[in-house]
Amino acid sequence: MSSTRMYRHGVLEAEGFPVDELSERLRDQDVTVWVDLCGPSQADLVEIADELGLHELAVEDALHPHERPKLDRYDTHCFLSAYAVRLDGPSGELVTSELSAFLTRQALVTVRADDRFDMGVVTARWDESPQLAGNGVGFLAHGLLDAVVDSHFEAVQALDDHIEELEDLLFSDHPDSRDMQRRALELRKSLVLLRRVVLPMREVVNALMRHEQVNDSMMPYYQDVYDHVLRATEWTESLRETVATIRETQLNIQSNRLNLIMKKVTGWAAIIAVPTAITGFYGQNVPYPGYDQPWGFWVSTVAILLVSGGLYALFKRRDWL
């Protein structure tokens, strides 16, 4: 599957034309072309590489998944690798969509392994700013990066909401410790993956800002994207620390609750030990004061009530029960 667009002097003149017409359309020096390849075969990508003079190493990186976000410079073009992300709400799992792009003087070629990332979001951004289309490939690359970085922001915001829910459950009256532990580990895993995606984007955007395709007109827009990358990175680091703090707090709360239970059990054990000791004394098989006398029974009963009641009042006043 492929999508195409052609701009001339910043005006959209054609879209949806066959990829075979790419070389012919690029003969006009005033033309800027975008080509999107979704799930291309090696032959499809090699054909475009031959037409645009793309480096074989860049083509190899575009065909192999799980590349690190980066910007590689070659003599006639640049190769961009990035990841758009999306957080699955019910599971809290982070879903990534790998993107590759070739930036030449007149063309932007994007490559996707599948359609998990909607390129319609990117084209909509281009259509929202037609006054910038005259900036050529720098304009097209900005729309792509802006959509990718916005997906990072949306994922961080969604993770922040999940973490707030986890914080609310932390101090509930009857927390489910196993469920909280599972959710905390899932969020931590998603944040680690998000950090791997977001952190290298600082270098990518910074390097692209120094590219010759980014002129002075587009520089403020790239600076805005760079600021968003920094904010997303800082937010991700903050959330990682928050999840670690939640986990530590959960363990401390469990330890405090266990100590409270042990304190109460120990207090009741001390109270129960009193009647056990007294009845044991009056249960001897040898004569003792009050042996075989009614008053001996009443003395033991009163002693049990007084001592047990005194211990209960003492423990209650000290908040041991």
UniProtKB/TrEMBL annotation:
Membrane found in the keyword field: yes
Family, as annotated: Belongs to the CorA metal ion transporter (MIT) (TC 1.A.35) family.
Main location: membrane
Gene3D superfamilies named in the record: CorA soluble domain-like (3.30.460.20), Magnesium transport protein CorA, transmembrane region (1.20.58.340)
Cellular component terms (Gene Ontology): plasma membrane
Residue ranges of the TM segments: 265-283, 295-315
Membrane topology: Multi-pass membrane protein
Entry-linked Pfam families: CorA
Protein name: Magnesium transporter
InterPro entries, A to Z: CorA_cytoplasmic_dom, CorA_TM1_TM2, MgTranspt_CorA/ZnTranspt_ZntB
Keywords per UniProt: Cell membrane, Membrane, Transmembrane, Transmembrane helix, Transport
Subcellular location: Cell membrane
Species this protein is from: Saccharothrix tamanrassetensis
GO molecular function, one term: magnesium ion transmembrane transporter activity
Taxonomy of the source species: Bacteria, Bacillati, Actinomycetota, Actinomycetes, Pseudonocardiales
